[in-house]
Amino acid sequence: MAGRDGSPAGRTGSTDRRSDAPIGVFDSGVGGLTVLTALQRVLPSEDFLYLGDTARLPYGSKPAAMVRAFAFELAAELVARGAKALVVACNSASTVSLPDLAYAAPVPVWGVVDPGVAAALASHRGGHVGVLGTERTIAAGAYQARLAAAGAAVWARACPLFVPIVEEGVADGAIAELVARHYLADHPSDLSSLILGCTHYPALADVLRRVLGPYVEIVDAAAATAATVAEGLARAGLARTAGGRPGRVVHLVTGDVEAFRHVAEVLGGPAGEVRHLPLPLPAREPWSALTVGT
Ligand code: DGL
């Protein structure tokens, strides 16, 4: 679906960025590493600049205008550092900044919502489609609106305890299962698929499957996003062609580097250099300032 969450209808058709420049990926913190890992799987020779705004997380419980302002700021920072394209890995940020960010930014921008919705609809066989996310993501209603527009019956649930459970490293234990049962207690009996609408939730996939049984299709928005980005980059002529070495990752974090490393271990990362990026970020191009807080 062009121009909502993806880039094709934005100011993104032309770019003078070189195809061997890095792809910028940003998130409120460590959770976006699930999206980065999915991207690396399908784009093994691309370089990535990953920006985790760990000093200001969580985004999922913050007001929409604030999260939107952060998203524009992080996007501008990555563009200023030479990113040829952007991936908004954070669901909370995607729901409140897109499609506007894709229209404003001078490089292609992809979020996680449209790819997740498209993947859910592709395997939809009637019944309800469920969406789990942070309070911000569920309140924004972006997933629900897109699914409803496609004619699907939707059930959505904010799960604020899931992020701390994953970051605490207990995503596969009894606590996670108890909390999952609590959140899923009133799901419709004809729930046929469930979108994991948060960066952290792929880590809970096994628990969710245990709670829901084998017949509910679990849709990982991270994997769907990676496929969309790979296809879009190739179409835009931005895929890295210089082979000969695996892609590299530089992580930039606004909070403490060691704390990032520690929590990132839970999600299997970070592989690559981690640098501190102190706040406040410098004021960037007018395209980002103009739209902040609107
Ligand atoms: N990255 C956020 C998301 O996907 C989850 C963590 C947070 O609330 O900042 O919505």
If you had to describe this structure to a student in words, what would you say it looks like?
By secondary structure, the chain is of the alpha/beta class. 40% of the residues lie in helices and 16% in strands. The protein starts with 22 loop residues before the first strand and ends with a helix. The site of D-glutamic acid has 17 residues, from helix 3.
List the helices and strands and how they pair.
Layout: E1 23-27, H1 33-42, E2 48-52, H2 64-80, E3 85-88, H3 91-97, H4 100-104, E4 109-110, H5 113-122, E5 128-133, H6 135-140, H7 142-149, E6 153-158, H8 162-167, H9 174-184, E7 191-197, H10 205-212, E8 217-220, H11 221-235, E9 249-253, H12 257-266, E10 273-276, H13 286-291
Parallel strand pairs: 1-2, 1-3, 2-9, 3-4, 5-6, 5-7, 7-8, 9-10
The protein binds D-glutamic acid (DGL).
Q: What is the mean predicted local confidence, pLDDT?
A: 90
Proportion of residues in β-strands: 15-25%
Please state the overall shape, judged from the principal axes of the Cα atoms.
Answer: globular
Number of strands: 10
Q: Would you list the SSEs in sequence order as H and E?
A: EHEHEHHEHEHHEHHEHEHEHEH
Q: Could you tell me how far the N terminus lies from the C terminus, measured between alpha carbons in angstroms? A: 24 Å
- If helices are DSSP runs of H or I spanning 4 or more residues, what is the number of helices? 13
Major sheet attributes: 6 strands, parallel
Which short descriptors sum up this protein?
13 helices, single chain, binds D-glutamic acid, 294 residues
Summarize the structure.
This protein is of the alpha/beta class.
